Amino acid sequence: xxxxxxxxxxxPILERVRAAGHEVTVTxxxxxxxxxxxxxxxxxxxxxxxxxGASRARKLTALVGRxxxxxxxxxxxxxxxAVAHGSNDLALAAASLRIPALNTFDYEWATQQHRIGCxxxxxxxxxxxxxxxRLTRYGAGPDKLVRYPxxxxxxxxxxxxxxxxxxxxxxxxxxxxxxxxxxxPDVSVYHRKANRLFPQxxxxxxxxxxxxxxxxxxxxxxxxxxxxxxxxxLIVPEHAIDAQSLIAxxxxxxxxxxxxxxxxxxxxxxxxxxxxxxxxxxxxxLMREGRLRPLTDARAMELRHHRSERVVHRRDPxxxxxxxxxxxx
Length: 329
Description:
The chain is built from 13 helices and 13 strands. It is of the alpha/beta class. It folds into two domains: 2-158 and 316-328, Glycogen Phosphorylase B (Rossmann fold); 165-300, Glycogen Phosphorylase B (Rossmann fold). Strands 10-9-8-11-12-13 form a six-stranded parallel β-sheet, sandwiched between helices. Strands 1-4-5-6-7 form a five-stranded parallel β-sheet, sandwiched between helices. It is globular and about 60 Å long.
């Protein structure tokens, strides 16, 4: 039983696990484009509950409700393993039913989330770039911690080929500098600090005639707010899109989140981060290597065509499959 934070993460793993003869049930909460992405990727799933929003009290209420629903779904179903990317409802339900659980993530400062997920898991799987001493506070010591090289995005995008149709579907003019823009995760507990730089980035890009900036919002409110700006060079999709193809075909990515930054790194697209929270080990590592660039001034972006300069990083997803399945043994 799995609960994906990003459906694409589990696609190659699902394919390999099922090819080995195992049955998998995918559950997902209704938040951002998760359900739309599952449908676009053709991944059968069960929608269980919704995101609680920005309020801590509503988050707790939603967590309890989702946990009870997941527990009810799992009881009597004879699951051998629960796999979650930062899903505390699955962790709680699995613990109450004594189902072995694997917890995986790539950002170590989501403190409240990890205090639950790590302590309840039999195995915690993270990138090697996260210093292990940062995880002991969550109960993820050497007895349960396993680390893998590189980025998870380099594994799940290993066989990825971009579909150029996405540009036509969005009305992108390829003669312009194509920029993908991702807003900050406003409702996340670990991202409460206002991101003042991001609106400046959007305003700067949205007024340049030589740019087409595709803003990939997380929520409907972000979509409406961006459209209301009326900036001529912004494109705001109506629904979930093939963001990975868009990233692979773009000249630049500017993101206040994490996953899209790392997808850009894996696909060889230059990327700036405007993330306003505490940097995690993965971002620190990528910055030291020069593969992720921090942005402090919107005018400092290097806006030019980069499409012929890509270095794509690929890794075999089978390694993650073996680490995951080894949790049940």
